[in-house]
TrEMBL record:
Cofactor(s) required for function per UniProt: pyridoxal 5'-phosphate
Active site: 185
This protein's record includes keyword Glycosyltransferase: no
Organism the protein comes from: Haloactinomyces albus
Residue numbers carrying N6-(pyridoxal phosphate)lysine: 185
Phylogenetic classification of the source organism: Bacteria, Bacillati, Actinomycetota, Actinomycetes, Actinopolysporales
The keyword 4Fe-4S appears for this protein: no
GO BP annotations listed: polysaccharide biosynthetic process
Gene3D superfamilies, sorted: Aspartate Aminotransferase, domain 1, Type I PLP-dependent aspartate aminotransferase-like (Major domain)
Family of the protein in this entry: Belongs to the DegT/DnrJ/EryC1 family.
Matches recorded under InterPro entries: DegT/StrS_aminotransferase, PyrdxlP-dep_Trfase, PyrdxlP-dep_Trfase_major, PyrdxlP-dep_Trfase_small
Keywords for the protein's UniProt record, in alphabetical order: Pyridoxal phosphate
Protein's UniProt name: dTDP-4-amino-4,6-dideoxygalactose transaminase
Length: 363
């Protein structure tokens, strides 16, 4: 009996998205305009307690421009996790600053404040935690460190739309925070990013940087990029934003089901007073994780993902000698199972049966 493949991620695109795009096409106003402005306002109301947001054409552009707007540049250091997607450190490096790689906490895979403390130098300008897999980083400890040393906090919230800590949404802690709208993220606009900031100066600089340094046409104030979101992308994003709350609940419900029913593998921990939005549901497989993933796919037709197999400090693009034991351990053992809102009851049962069968066989 051959079963249908369960993909590790699956964007949900419906008639409402198609109609919204068609409406923009019919209007002829394709580039940044009214749809984009409406999307920014709705995103800030829905996910950020009203904190201002600036849209851009990718999450990576959001990090890059956010850092530039916050004054990060040549000679500065920004402390980032090594256990993340390369965009985090790439954005720091693209400003001319140096990403300094810190280890993670073993239970939640986010930046370890004690290790960050050891890495602070006179050149450190800021700390950029990642709310990895949709779990908020330890912001209270990082905020204390930032205050003690006069540093800025920047949030890579690419994977964490709607996550919160102590009742505060992620994206409201730092000088700025970036949310990615790439198709595999918890919501999408095709490609795109949203940058939240409570700092009026950073907000204005971001708007200048994304559009050639212009507020008024042809009166360029600073040197800038073209990183504008289009009305077409914003139209998709607005529809997705109206659904992301329900999708998050389904992700959380899927995660609870796995928590209760998986045996013989490590299941994700959630910190006290944290709301996890399960961009990924990441288990640990201590022995032969890659063989486990292959068997899931070939014997059970279940997709999975390793985020991330090579920590940033060991990528050819950075090639640093660092000793980050929790990072190395995670890179060796993590495996993300499908947790997306398209799973039905039968898919969830199949995933549990497959993981438990493989875990038992391996034990
Ligand atoms: C996806 C992602 C990014 C980059 O976002 P893009 O929209 O793909 O440019 C940055 N950081 C993390 C942690 C991500 O997962």
């Amino acid at each position: 009996m051959s079963k249908e493949f369960i993909p590790p991620a699956k964007p949900i695109i419906g008639d409402a998205e198609r109609e919204a795009v068609d409406e923009v096409l019919r209007s002829g106003m394709l580039a940044q305009g009214a749809e984009v402005t409406a999307f920014e306002q709705e995103f800030s109301q829905e996910l950020l307690d009203g904190r201002s947001t600036v849209s851009v054409n990718s999450g990576t552009a959001g990090l890059h421009l956010g850092l530039l707007a916050a004054g990060v540049g040549l000679g500065d250091e920004v402390i980032v996790p090594s256990f993340t997607f390369a965009a985090t450190a790439n954005a720091v490096a693209l400003t001319g600053a140096t990403p300094v790689f810190a280890d993670i906490e073993p239970d939640h895979y986010c930046l370890a404040p004690e290790h960050v403390a050891e890495l602070i130098t006179e050149r450190t300008k800021g700390i950029m935690p990642v709310h990895l897999y949709g779990h908020p980083a330890n912001m209270p400890a990082l905020q204390r460190l930032a205050e003690q040393h006069g540093l800025a906090l920047f949030e890579d919230a690419a994977q964490a739309h709607g996550a919160s800590l102590d009742g505060h949404p992620v994206g409201t802690f730092g000088t700025f925070a970036m949310f990615s709208l790439y198709p595999t993220k918890n919501m999408t606009s095709g490609e795109g990013g949203m940058v939240a900031t409570g700092d009026a100066e950073v907000d204005r600089t971001l708007r200048l940087l994304r559009s050639q340094g212009m507020e008024r046409q042809y009166e360029n104030e600073i040197v800038g990029f073209n990183a504008r979101m289009t009305n077409l992308h914003a139209a998709i994003g607005r529809v997705q934003l109206s659904k992301v709350g329900e999708w998050t609940k389904t992700r959380q419900d899927n995660a609870r089901f796995f928590d209760r029913n998986l045996h013989g593998v490590g299941v994700p921990a959630v910190a006290d007073r944290a709301v996890h939005v399960y961009h990924q549901y990441t288990i640990t497989v201590p022995e032969d994780r890659d063989g486990f993933a292959t068997a899931l796919k070939e014997e059970h037709q279940i997709g999975s993902g390793v985020y991330y197999p090579i920590p940033n400090h060991r990528l050819p693009s950075f090639a640093r000698q660092e000793d980050l034991p929790n990072t190395e351990q995670a890179a060796r053992t993590v495996l993300s199972l499908p947790v997306h809102p398209s799973l039905d009851d039968e898919d969830r049962e199949r995933i549990v049966t497959a993981v438990n069968t493989l875990a038992k066989a391996g034990a």
